[in-house]
């Protein structure tokens, strides 16, 4: 069994493996100059015996290391070496060693040793040596270099062990055709298969796809005033009725003149002062300049502006300083350079935020046509669930789910209908659900949908709607009910408070964004929370076969990269983990765990929470 190998570099790594005595080092010593002749810059990593040393007793570096320096870096202008004392009880980690390589200085890393790792390797085999093959039990062998008499499978690239030039050609070819592995997101909607009828557990991606297929964008639109447009979604492209800026104007307080006059290097005669909101009607003549303020229209005859601090003024004369650095058109903002008249200023499906509202205002738009906001009805179920503000009865808990759901839905620009806590009684539930579906685009409940749940909600839903009860391969948030009650979409979220939030973010959020008419012209997975790559600062436990959504805390570390650690205890009822965290760490179904230093993806909360 070979261990998985993650290449942390953006250049290829190619191993050479063989039983000892085959002549690995001899070959590499001949291969390296051949590769250099072919223009390849090489790094080599070699596995060594535990007691190797590169230093010499008596040298300063040796003595200082022996005196206790854990790392010793010795450097001159031609060479440097870093020696690190590691007291490991097993082989050093190849990814860790690779990170020491300066990948911008070499084209490929050749690795000698590390036979057990699943990195791409060339097997060296000498028949006379009488040793077994490696490729028969290691599918990372990309080629075998052997002698004439050796039998090899037809599908394996065969090289001549005694023809170094041929092996060098193969390495060059390998380096040139190598591509960094494509990054896949932990939840990959594009490659999720359609669920089979009766399938027991659904992947998160299958669940999201299935939900998105049932959702269509609201078609009703309304005109809304600028001040009330925040977080609404544009129903049609916004075409600019004007140029922004309207006039070619100055970006500086300074002096405006014709660039062609600069060469004369004589003072200009200042004919006028142009203030923002005013104009100069005449044409500025050769030898003339205007004093001009930021935002003031540039008069005819002027094409260049020099900031005031680079000018010397005496009465009505201005002399330009540092004329060599003046460029034609400097500090002039051209009419329409931000947005030209008849351009699409904002496209249909844009969610309007502060920047978009400012832009609409800059076009003079006082209203915009937006998609009607989705209406979301929310209720909680369960005999133990009590209203905050009331005295908590024995064995009960306060209803937190309704408040997290409402807050998240509001952030997504929805109207809310709060149906409160509905008692576990068939008639009450039926009435509430029918009433909710008549008023709302989406009805969301929490609790009562897990397997073996005694709650009435499942029975009622089965009667009045078409609801699927799913088990999603995820933690937290396994149970999920999704379907229709009349024309409304229904979500039955789990009961546990963290599971509710995680399920909302993964499943309800995309549905609400799509329903609201949001469109992302570029994003491959529109409506989905954003993924940001980060480096795990600690071992993170998961389990293959389910997606894990750990609450995490990310920060920018001293290396300038985003690092993340878990918030600690991860109980699905512990809302405090959502409060202390600032992201979800999303671990793919295929991963059993993430080791410290390994890349992971996070979903920052900033999107919605
Ligand atoms: P259930 O899915 O109904 O079995 O609920 C799972 C867990 O979530 C139980 O511990 C419930 O007490 C809890 N729970 C259910 N609804 C709510 C709610 N609205 N607020 C807080 N916790 C809840
Ligand atoms: Mg319950």
UniProtKB/TrEMBL annotation:
Species of the source: Shewanella aestuarii
Catalysed conversion reaction: adenylyl-molybdopterin + molybdate = Mo-molybdopterin + AMP + H(+)
InterPro entries attached to this UniProt entry: MoaB/Mog-like_dom_sf, MoaB/Mog_dom, MobB_dom, MobB_MoeA, MoCF_biosynth_CS, MoeA-like, MoeA_C_domain_IV, MoeA_C_domain_IV_sf
Role: Catalyzes the insertion of molybdate into adenylated molybdopterin with the concomitant release of AMP.
Cofactor(s) of this protein: Mg(2+)
Keywords, alphabetical: Magnesium, Metal-binding, Molybdenum, Molybdenum cofactor biosynthesis, Transferase
Pathway(s) per entry: Cofactor biosynthesis; molybdopterin biosynthesis
Record SUPFAM superfamilies: MoeA C-terminal domain-like (SSF63867), MoeA N-terminal region -like (SSF63882), Molybdenum cofactor biosynthesis proteins (SSF53218), P-loop containing nucleoside triphosphate hydrolases (SSF52540)
Residues annotated as transmembrane: none
Entries under PANTHER family matching the protein: MOLYBDOPTERIN BIOSYNTHESIS PROTEIN, MOLYBDOPTERIN MOLYBDENUMTRANSFERASE
Protein name: Molybdopterin molybdenumtransferase
């Amino acid at each position: 069994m070979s261990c998985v190998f993650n290449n942390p570099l953006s250049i290829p790594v190619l191993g050479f493996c063989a039983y000892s005595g085959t002549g690995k080092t001899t070959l590499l010593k001949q291969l390296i100059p051949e590769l250099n002749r072919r223009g390849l810059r090489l790094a080599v990593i070699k596995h060594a015996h535990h007691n190797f040393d590169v230093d010499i007793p008596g040298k300063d570096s040796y003595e200082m290391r022996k005196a206790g320096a854990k790392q010793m870096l010795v450097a001159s202008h031609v060479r440097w070496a870093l020696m690190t004392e590691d007291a490991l009880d097993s082989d050093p980690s190849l990814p860790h060693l690779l990170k020491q390589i300066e990948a911008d200085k070499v084209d490929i890393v050749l690795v000698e040793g590390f036979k057990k790792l699943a990195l791409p390797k060339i097997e060296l085999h000498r028949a006379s040596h009488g040793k077994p093959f490696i490729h028969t039990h290691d599918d990372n062998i990309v080629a075998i270099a052997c002698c004439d008499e050796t039998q090899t499978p037809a599908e394996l690239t065969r090289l001549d062990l005694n023809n170094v030039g041929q092996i060098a050609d193969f390495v060059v070819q390998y380096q040139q055709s190598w591509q960094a592995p494509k990054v896949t997101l932990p939840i990959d909607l594009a490659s999720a298969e359609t669920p089979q009828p009766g399938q027991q557990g659904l992947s998160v991606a299958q669940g999201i796809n299935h939900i998105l297929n049932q959702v269509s964008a609201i078609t009703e639109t309304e005109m809304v005033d600028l001040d009330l447009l925040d977080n609404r979604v544009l129903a049609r492209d916004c075409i600019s009725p004007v140029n922004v800026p309207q006039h070619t104007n100055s970006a500086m307080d300074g002096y405006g003149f014709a660039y062609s006059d600069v060469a004369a290097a004589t003072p200009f005669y200042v004919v006028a002062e142009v203030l923002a909101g005013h104009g100069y009607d005449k044409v500025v003549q050769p030898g003339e300049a205007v004093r001009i303020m930021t935002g003031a229209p540039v008069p005819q005859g002027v094409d260049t502006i020099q900031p005031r601090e680079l000018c010397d003024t005496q009465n009505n004369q201005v002399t330009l300083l540092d004329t060599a650095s003046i460029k034609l058109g400097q500090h002039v903002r051209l009419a329409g350079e931000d947005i030209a008249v008849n351009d699409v200023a904002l496209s249909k499906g844009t969610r309007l935020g502060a920047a978009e509202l400012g832009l609409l205002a800059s076009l003079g738009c006082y209203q915009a046509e937006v998609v009607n906001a989705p209406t979301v009805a929310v209720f909680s179920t369960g005999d133990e669930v009590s209203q905050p503000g009331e005295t908590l009865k024995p064995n009960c808990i306060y209803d937190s789910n309704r408040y997290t759901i409402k807050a998240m839905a509001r952030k997504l620009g929805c109207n809310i209908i709060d149906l409160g806590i509905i008692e576990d009684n068939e008639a009450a539930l039926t009435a509430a659900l029918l009433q909710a579906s008549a008023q709302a685009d989406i009805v969301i409940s929490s609790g009562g949908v897990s397997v073996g749940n005694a709650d009435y909600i499942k029975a009622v839903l089965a009667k009045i709607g078409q609801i699927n009860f799913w088990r999603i391969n995820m933690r937290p948030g396994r149970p999920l009910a999704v379907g229709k009650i009349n024309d409304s979409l229904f979500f039955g979220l789990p009961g546990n408070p963290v599971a509710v939030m995680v399920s909302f973010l993964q499943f309800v959020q995309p549905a609400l964004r799509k329903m609201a008419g949001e469109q992302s012209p570029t994003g491959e997975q529109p409506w989905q929370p954003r993924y940001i790559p980060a480096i795990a600062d600690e071992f993170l436990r998961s389990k293959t076969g389910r997606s894990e959504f750990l609450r995490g805390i990310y920060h920018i570390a001293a290396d300038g990269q985003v690092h993340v650690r878990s918030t600690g205890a991860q109980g699905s009822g512990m809302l405090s983990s959502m409060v202390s965290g600032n992201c979800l760490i999303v671990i793919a179904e295929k991963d059993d765990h993430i080791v410290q230093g390994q890349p992971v993806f996070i979903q920052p909360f900033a999107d919605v929470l």
